[in-house]
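Exercise 7.
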Amino acid sequence: MKGKTYDELEVGMSASLTRTVTEADVVMFGGVTGDLNPAHFNEVYAAASPFKGRIAHGMLGAGYISAVFGMSLPGPGTIYLEQTLGFKAPVRMGETITASVELVEKLPKGRCRFTTTCTNQDDTVVITGEAIVLPPR
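Solution. The predicted structure, written as tokens, is:
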């Protein structure tokens, strides 16, 4: 299984995936990364926060962007080189997040620049950014 090569990619190509964030996702992400911030795990603490309740890790949502690159566009064999992220709104357990990427520029040395966006089920933008990837050869 191999993704699209640099030569097969065209500006304007896009892909996305949709996932519903579960309690198990947050627990596993916290366990794997060691990020046990009470904003994610302690309802009493989180209720007193600006978000008024527990939220998922921002990087969990950003991980969905990685999945689009690695599995869809360009796909298997892609190397993720750079990413900027803007966390625009909190993500809560039970929300459905769509991660989308769009190729905006083919760069020298076989690299590609993409815009990256995550939205929730209400079309609220929760994460924005740009990424540089190296498609498979």
